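Subject: Protein entry, chain in single-letter code together with its fold tokens

Category: Structural biology, sequence-to-fold work with a learned token vocabulary.

Notation: Tokens come from a learned vocabulary of local backbone shapes, not from coordinates.

Start of record: The labelled sequence and token lines come straight after this line.
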Amino acid sequence: MKRREILCLLTGCMLLLAPMRAGASYLPDLLPVGTINMFETTGSGTEDSVADDEQGLDFGVSDNDITNDNESDGTEQEGGIINREDDIEQNDTQIEEDEISLQDILGESIGSGMILESTKTEREYAEAYEKAKNANWGYTNLGIANVDNNLNVRAVAAEDGKLVGKLPKDAACEVLDSDGTWAHIKSGKVEGYVSLEYLLTGIPAKRRAEELATTMARVTTDSLKVRAEANTESEVITLVPNGEELEVASVEGDWVRVYLDDEEVFVSAEYVEVSSELSTAITMTELFYGQGISDVRVDVCQYAKEFLGNPYVWGGTSLTNGADCSGYVMSIFKKYGVSLPHSSVAQANCGTTISVSEAQPGDLVFYGNGKSINHVAIYIGNGQVIHASSPKTGIRISNVSYRSPIKAVKIL
């Protein structure tokens, strides 16, 4: 057979094999684990072709298989690919090894290799995977309350259905089912039905969630020390109990800068878990006050909750346009004929001092730095307080022990 005919035949065969070989050479960039032997053969080379290399990946095609740099003796190479130089030798016609190469004939781009090529590192792939996994913040079918105040959650899909909870403005839920008018949802501890008219779903919900998601640090130790500066020599401002969450300002090495009401403080990164979260529904149990509570106390708490989510403004007293912690308390009690000064320190000297464990709905709870008071909240029962927390969170509900309380005062 003439040399040109042999060369054309060889070129045709290699054109068929090149896409698979080139594709296999780039597969490690796309598949994190596993082994693929694209050209399995029998003989001593098989075991080596499926063994992991030092990086934990071997796809049956070695660098030498692709470049054909190995010396040949007419037998199979370790990667399982037969050296074809001796196959070209026929009678008195022989192609010299360095005379012409397949790469010269095909050009620089072979098969699908350039399509499969990836420049991402393993870490970048891992980060992309985590981002995709958490794209909906743990929700399969995300819903966001699109209301000005609270969205009622009912036991049945009807306007007169029993209330089982409330979904605050911009709170998230899992949409379990929908009939076009009502959505069956679950949020936190609450499961029930809400009107679809006031619920964002699909892409609008995801876009809204991207604006709302807050990075939180959940305490993982029994009593976490909150410090003024990012070092163990710094003053301990307060203690935060296990399971409590603090809003994250930034992560700075071994320390996490968090918001403690309107202050920026530090906690050790070792004792918190940082994650991006959306707010959830409030159960009716969480709104329950218990027996023996006067109507005026219940009314004070209900009135205070009407402004949940409204803005925090330092020095402000407006329940709708913005108030700070003492301004919020002052304006709530003003409706009930109680005159309070616009200062948390001054308010702590009003009324009758009681222990925090004795607090009833409508009583005031005070917080601070050490024994120095700088924050006030209204106790609303069930171990919770409502307060104008910070410019970022506005008026919110927290556990009474979200930081160490200093004292409580009975005003009513």
Remarks:
- The chain has a mean pLDDT of 75.
- Residues 257 and 266 are 5 Å apart (CA to CA).
